[in-house]
Amino acid sequence: MRDMTEVLTSLAARLYGKRSARRRAKKALEALQREDP
User: Which domain of life is it from (predicted)?
Assistant: First the structure.
């Protein structure tokens, strides 16, 4: 799961800038976990 976090963080950093990347990646992970059955 940690690898997924790092991937999302790096993608978010490229898209949105480094400051908000970690927060956006965390929200994305939480959304993914909620959708998993």
Answer: Bacteria
